[in-house]
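$ ./design --mode recover --in tokens.txt
reading tokens...
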């Protein structure tokens, strides 16, 4: 499930005490949102050129460090060099990414290790003193069981989220459909024959 308290309450009410699994995309994005919040706050004090450029280059803050190109690495280092607080926030994002990668590898068999390392990440967030990062602690603690379950059971909404997104794009590109049956046929055809390039109308 996504991290909606009302949805969680409804599921528990309808199904008793099911094993809830938080979708990885939904809890990961809180970390990237926090980093974005720090970047937006810090770049307000930049020179107008750097402020606009940093905004355009915001994707480099999200990208895995080892996947950065030479140009992206230069821009990242430039803006991290302009703010120690932003550098700390970026390092916390990278620390989280390392924890997440390890959790995927060992979570099924060593969830206790994953849990202990998550607690260490909480300490890193707290000691940073960065408001946006400290606020992450509460979110993760409130959903900790569901987050850890995502590594034990290895379920994901990724496939369905992809279908939903491509369906919304299809609808937007067509500026809507007057006939639901035609829209339904278009959706089914686009997914069933995705690699062939067949279209209706």
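writing sequence...
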């Amino acid at each position: 499930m996504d991290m909606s308290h009302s949805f969680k309450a409804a599921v528990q009410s309808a199904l008793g005490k099911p094993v809830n699994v938080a979708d990885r995309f939904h809890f990961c994005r809180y970390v990237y949102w926090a980093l974005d919040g720090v970047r937006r706050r810090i770049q307000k004090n930049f020179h107008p050129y750097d402020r606009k450029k940093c905004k355009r280059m915001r994707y480099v803050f999200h990208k895995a460090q080892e996947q950065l190109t030479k140009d992206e690495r230069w821009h990242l280092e430039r803006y991290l060099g302009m703010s120690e607080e932003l550098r700390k926030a970026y390092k916390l994002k990278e620390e989280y990414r390392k924890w997440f990668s390890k959790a995927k590898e060992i979570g099924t068999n060593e969830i206790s290790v994953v849990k202990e390392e998550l607690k260490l990440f909480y300490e890193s967030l707290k000691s940073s003193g960065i408001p946006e990062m400290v606020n992450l602690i509460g979110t993760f603690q409130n959903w900790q069981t569901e987050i850890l379950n995502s590594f034990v059971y290895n379920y994901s909404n990724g496939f369905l989220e992809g279908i939903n997104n491509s369906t919304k794009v299809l609808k937007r590109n067509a500026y809507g459909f007057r006939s639901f049956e035609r829209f339904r046929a278009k959706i089914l055809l686009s997914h069933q024959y995705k690699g062939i390039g067949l279209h209706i109308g």
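exit 0
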